[in-house]
Amino acid sequence: MKDSTSAPIEKNEMKRRLIVAILVAIVAIAFEPSLARAQLLPEDQGSVSSSSAESQAQSQVQSDQQTESLYQQYEQQQNALQKRKEEERRAAREREQNAKYLNYQPKNISGLVRLAPFTDIAVIQRRYLPKTGRFEFSASGVISTNNAFFNNIGLNARLAYYFNDKYGVEGIYQLMTSSNRPITQGLISNQKIETQSLVEPKGFYGLTFNWSPIYGKMAWFQQKIIPFDIYFSPGLGVTQTSNDSGDTTVMLGVGQLFALSKSYGIRWDFNWNYYNATTSSTDTTGTVTSSTSSHSDLFLGVGFSYFFPEATYR
């Protein structure tokens, strides 16, 4: 039989255990979501950390690329600036050099090396002296260079017209005077030989074709540059001799014209005249005999030329 005092104790123990069980259940219910979150937290934090690392890596790559691009732009700007400074320094040196020689006037040919490049020197590509559509009048003194028996000197007048700078026609009239050389005087005085048997030119007139294929310029004692033309002049004419005969003559000539301006010049000519001349001789009985033989004269002339009208096209 149970004790009456133990019944209340058992009831109290049961109440106490019931209360504890209820409290445990309440605590379990209250902390269950937190425990679930606590169990899932490490895995979620790992995913977040991985995504953040990838994002940071991409950001670092983009930052490096931007930095490299900026560095390249800086280098390009520095190179362009350096190049521009070099060009400015070179242009300044050229301006200084040109200013130094701007008013320099060379006194001789060797002084041309001090002129500023491409500013003070002009290359003459065309003829300095224009001839197209112009007349040329020239006069010169003439001397024979190959006559062994007579000293022949004279005057030569020419009038030419040029179709262009290379081609023209020219008329010639030449008067000659002669004197005996010592050998001729000896033949007359000592050998009693008549001079009619010798050819003595008195004059020449004819027409030539002038061809000027060569032109250029030359220095005159390092003081002046003189343009010139070299020409050839074949032609036909008549030679008058002391026997009052006019003999058909073939003429070949060469000459050079030095231009002093676009209207005046100095020229020299060297001409070869070939013709058949008639001579006469008298024997001891007084009989006069005529004969024909070939003869040639070489004449050297020096004179001046004047071109007209004034050239307006150059």
How many H/I helices? Answer: 2
Biggest β-sheet: strands ordered side by side in the sheet: 1-2-3-4-5-6-7-8
* CATH domain class of the largest domain: Mainly Beta
Summarize the amount of helix as a percent range: 25-40%
The major sheet is characterized as: 8 strands, antiparallel, barrel
Number of strands: 8
Main attributes of the structure:
314 residues; 2 domains; 8-stranded antiparallel barrel; 2 helices
Structure in words:
With 314 residues, the chain is α+β, with helices and mostly antiparallel strands. The protein has 2 domains: 1-121; 135-308, Beta Barrel (Porin). It is built from 2 helices and 8 strands; from the N terminus they run αβββαβββββ. It has helices at residues 6-101, 182-190, and strands spanning 135-144, 150-162, 167-180, 201-220, 224-241, 246-259, 264-282, 288-308. It has an 8-stranded antiparallel barrel with strand order 1-2-3-4-5-6-7-8. The longest helix is centred in the first third of the chain and has 96 residues, at 6-101. The radius of gyration is 60 Å and the shape is rod-shaped.
Compose a concise summary of this entry.
It contains 2 helices and 8 strands; from the N terminus they run αβββαβββββ. By secondary structure, the chain is α+β, with helices and mostly antiparallel strands.
Topology:
Blueprint: H1 6-101, E1 135-144, E2 150-162, E3 167-180, H2 182-190, E4 201-220, E5 224-241, E6 246-259, E7 264-282, E8 288-308
Antiparallel strand pairs: 1-2, 1-8, 2-3, 3-4, 4-5, 5-6, 6-7, 7-8
